[in-house]
Amino acid sequence: MQSYTHLSDSASDSEQPYSPPPRWTPLHQDPRLALLPPHARPSGEMKGETERWKMVVIRLLPVVATVAWLLTLLLLLFSWLYLDHRRLYKWYLGGMPYISDVGAVHKSFFRWGCSVTAIFYAASLGAERWLRARRVLSEATEERWLWIAVGVLDVLVGTLGAAALVLLSIYDAFDHPKLHSLFMSSFIIAVGVSGTLQTVEVEHLMHEHPDRKDLLDATYLKWIFLSIAVLCGGGFWIMYYICDGDATKGGECWRVTTASAVLEWAACFMCDAYLATLILDVWPAYRHTPLPHRVWANAQGIQGIHVLQPDGGYMSWPLGAQVEREEWEKEREAVWMEKGGSMRRSAVVA
């Protein structure tokens, strides 16, 4: 374990007002490191740090995907209710139109909505995987390569689902019914598999990092929304094929087909709720902001964290000290508020 000691940056013993470095200044850019011997100076940016503009962009990716899909669904529903005055596009498919039917009539914003959602959904999955690879987000340390493979597979399958979403909007239900059904099935299966892989990974991280309450919340929400979406999607397909092409108004199949359309809408809204859980994965600032403590990692994985002591020195804490870290941060804030005007801050590797 590395050790850190103190080094005075001034020959004078007189106290100087404490002035913390800029919030976004990485440790390796600290001018006081010039006082260290060359072999003791860190080179390059330490893992776990992300520039502020990157953090903002990454946070916006799942937000845009969630809002785009929600607006697409609401615009389709509004168009059918108020622009088309609830007319039935196909008399034999019940009293509620399928999303694909409304999208085939209003092709323009349906294609735009699906395309924007697909692009930002795939980008959100890739950004989360990149953050975990850089150890900014919590990463698995047990069977690490297995969970890296699971994460990469999650991104690949999710990207295929995003591509299927774009294609099903291009090949609509009226002009290309067979291709539309194929891409719709591919989208549902791909998003379901990708969501399951991601949920299993987050649940594993929750058990490996029990102090991370955000992982606990994300795990429960992912399981809830994904389960409801899968149940609604399965009910939609079953009811659709039970009475396909035989939904005489007022009959039993009319009600069954109408219920299948309602379940399709419900499944799509639950998919949007699942997309919103991606925001929880990348949103918390303390996982992306270069705080006074940095991740201590090497080629063998995460070893611990470097923490800044109230008296200005640095100390290395091994993995598993997260609970103590939280207590230390509370003590640090109290000390800094009390003695912030006279504290001096410097560090050196022993």
UniProtKB/TrEMBL annotation:
Residue intervals passing through the bilayer: 56-83, 109-127, 147-170, 182-200, 220-242, 262-283
Top-level taxon: Eukaryota
Keyword Ligase appears in the UniProt entry: no
Compartments in which it is found: Endomembrane system
Any one of the GO CC terms: plasma membrane
Ranges of Polar residues composition bias in the record: 1-17
Main location, first listed in the record: membrane
Region (Disordered): 1-23
Keywords, ordered alphabetically: Membrane, Transmembrane, Transmembrane helix
Topology in the lipid bilayer: Multi-pass membrane protein
Record flagged with keyword Metal-binding: no
CWH43-like N-terminal domain location: 59-284
Protein name, per record: Frag1/DRAM/Sfk1 family-domain-containing protein
